[in-house]
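quick one before i forget lol
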Amino acid sequence: MAERIWKRDIDAASFLAQHDATLPGLLGVRMLEFGPDFARAAMPVDSRHVQPFGILHGGGSVVLAETIGSYCSLLCTEEGNRCVGVEVSASHLAPVFAGDTVEALCRPLRLGRKLHVWHIELRRGDGTLSCVARLTTAVQAAR
């Protein structure tokens, strides 16, 4: 069994409250599951998320990836810290159409004292890999 990486209590209701009026909340990002060393989140794909061709905008995929990665990073730190994204890259591999849901699976590649690196896979409803992303976050003292 994988070693538990979380240092803070996990509370889906708290995530919703923190993000309700922010971009992830406005786009419907929801945390689904936390395992010992991974997390899953989902986002619906509707008129808020698509580009003119009716498929998920690449920026929407990046919002989901950066949201889950940043939140996971925060949960891996002690109270009194915050985590901010410093670099994100994404490769869009398959379209996700309006009416579908995209699900993200996030796992750490490295959990250092000052930097965390995350690997995030996004899959559309039929299980097809639609995007792979890598996020680097900086761990900072909260202000």
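fyi The chain has one domain: 12-141.
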